[in-house]
Amino acid sequence: MTAEAIEAGPRPGPSGGGDTPLRIALLTYKGNPFCGGQGVYVRHLSRELARLGHSVEVIGAQPYPVLDEGVPLTELPSLDLYRSPDPFRTPRRGEYRDWIDALEVATMWTGGFPEPLTFSLRARRHLLARRGEFDVVHDNQTLGYGLLGDLGAPLVTTIHHPITVDRQLELDAADGRRRRLSVRRWYGFTRMQKRVARRLPSVLTVSGTSQQEIVEHLGVRRDRIEVVHIGADTDLFSPNPAVAEVPGRIVTTSSADVPLKGLVHLVEALAKLRTEHPAAHLVVVGKRAEDGPVAQLIERYGLQDAVEFVKGITDAELVDLVRSAQVACVPSLYEGFSLPAAEAMATGTPLVATTGGAIPEVAGPDGESCLAVPPGDAGALAAALGRLLGDPELRARLGAGGRARVLSRFTWARAAQGTAERYREAIAMGRSTAKEPGRPAAPVVGSNHSC
């Protein structure tokens, strides 16, 4: 039996709480497994739902998610306008298939981000053509107009956190009127997401902090929002004494110039830290930005040899990288949950984390399972990192405390069980609504746009 299965406790049946396994359509408009949390969420939740005995089919667009054996993927392709190495490309005439493709390109041409809307329209068409094949549809934060109304099965939606938070942080960091206008146009889809979210009878989210943000930013009633914590793959992310610690190594996961991730503050902290710990160096799991605030700071402080970016590594390589670090760091200004924090803690690597958003819910109390610092404070980050680098006993104690916290609270097996319970509630609510005299059946709806 796996560590996750042991920690989750006995499973009441093949479907985790009901008599009959469910047929689940899991939608994801963006499934990049190497950037952002959406691809990670879809991969691990689908695997654990399948282990509970459910039939799970992931329906997604580019970048397609990486899924575990036994979980099928149905590709619902977009025009992939943001693909590497030619993002913001103009498709050839022969690539256009229908009016949705034309809408996608027109929105991009005018500076907007079209994928939540256009994926929802394609998903609606696909689901209605397959009416009766699914017991429940689970949307992974698309929140597009196409998912309102009858889809042939009740809808449950996950909102990891409102993208309006990302929008505001980028506006706060924007330099000049033109940049602010560009940010507002790019995030125009958040108006749609607000309207859709308010029409959802039932929403899933991943933390209490995200629940509060959904109430405040999206106007969803609190009694419609259920918290189901996600977690780490504690079999994969586990301690391994055979992996040697690299002196001075700090590991973080970040998109280089996304203000929300706080990497600019960590780079500044590293410059301060190296005056007392010359061996300190940073490995960033994410794409290097060739220009922008992070690249400028690296050059200004002469940190070219002290900051390394790695991208597209395997799961095994990622785990060994985290194990090799003396400290893991989450410098984000805000997170709706923070999978990198949970995964680092699961390996037994001591953590320095900010108190932004839901991070304290995951990382736990300062001095017990992490060292906690205020978001955006490079000096506090440097002090906490230096304290850990200089104290092997503290590293060992916090590493053990972090691992224990994740095993007791944040595993994918628990997440799958809680999510399956919400599916059954949605199905039951849909049946109840359908029986009300004089009312047609209504769909039951619930909820890292990233990368």
Automatic annotation (TrEMBL):
EC nos: 2.4.-.-
Annotated keywords: Glycosyltransferase, Transferase
Glycosyltransferase found in the keyword field: yes
Enzyme superclass (EC): transferase
Organism domain of life: Bacteria
Glycosyltransferase in keyword set: yes
Name of the featured protein: Glycosyltransferase family 4 protein
Origin organism lineage: Bacteria, Bacillati, Actinomycetota, Actinomycetes, Kitasatosporales
